[in-house]
Amino acid sequence: MSDLNRATLRRFFVLGYDDLRARLARRFGSVELASDALHETWLRLETAVPAGIVRSPRNYLLQMAANVALKRLKVERSFVTLTDAKMAIGISDDAPDPECAAIASSEVAMLAKALSELTPRRREILLASRLDGIQLWAIAERLGVSQRLVEIELKHALAHCALRVDRNVIKRFGPRSPQGSQAEEEDPG
């Protein structure tokens, strides 16, 4: 590009910058894209080689900037976000939303408080049965009490915790079997 053409384009660029940006923003619906495209157009003026004399510098600059903007849009559309990729291959996001996480955190705090309110023996029976999966007869043997007493203590501990976290008591005694079904121990009452 001749120095005369380059100087003319630069002058039109500087003097008509606001008009160029407004036209590009209307065309592409984004002031940010228009500004970025004009910035890159300014940088490209150094290497631009028009076929001859530029008769309409404003239209030349506008077309040059529009081409830059179109190229940017094409590149942006070719990018795939991690969320898009997960959805495309069928991986769902198993993380709880913030509301569910807050509710769960609150429930855990209420349960911890309820557990702290239990007598040590009731707390030990509840945790051994429900967390460790120990059979009621084994808990009774370990504590040196009858299985019936363990069942009663467990029933009271479950009722207390259910009341504190505002839940219904699940009528099941003993741990689940390894296959996931209920143990053969029956509800005593």
CATH class of the largest domain, anyone?
Answer: Mainly Alpha
Q: What structural class should be given to the helix and strand makeup?
A: mainly alpha
By DSSP, the count of extended strands is: 0
Mean pLDDT: 82
Total count of domains: 2
Strand content: under 5%
Biggest β-sheet description: none
Q: What is the global morphology?
A: rod-shaped
CATH topology of the largest domain: Arc Repressor Mutant, subunit A
General description of the model:
- The protein folds into two domains: 76 residues, Rna Polymerase Sigma Factor, Chain: A (Orthogonal Bundle); 97 residues, Winged helix-like DNA-binding domain superfamily/Winged helix DNA-binding domain (Arc Repressor Mutant, subunit A), CATH 1.10.10.
- The protein is 67% helix and 0% strand.
- It contains nine helices and no strands.
- Helix 2 packs across helix 3.
- The protein is rod-shaped and about 105 Å long.
- The chain starts with a helix and ends in a 25-residue tail after the last helix.
Briefly summarize what is shown:
This protein has 189 residues and is mostly helical. The protein has 9 helices and no strands.
Quick tags:
rod-shaped; mainly alpha; 67% helix; 189 residues; 2 domains; Rna Polymerase Sigma Factor, Chain: A; Arc Repressor Mutant, subunit A; disordered C terminus
Topology:
Blueprint: H1 3-15, H2 17-28, H3 31-44, H4 57-78, H5 82-88, H6 98-117, H7 120-131, H8 136-143, H9 147-164
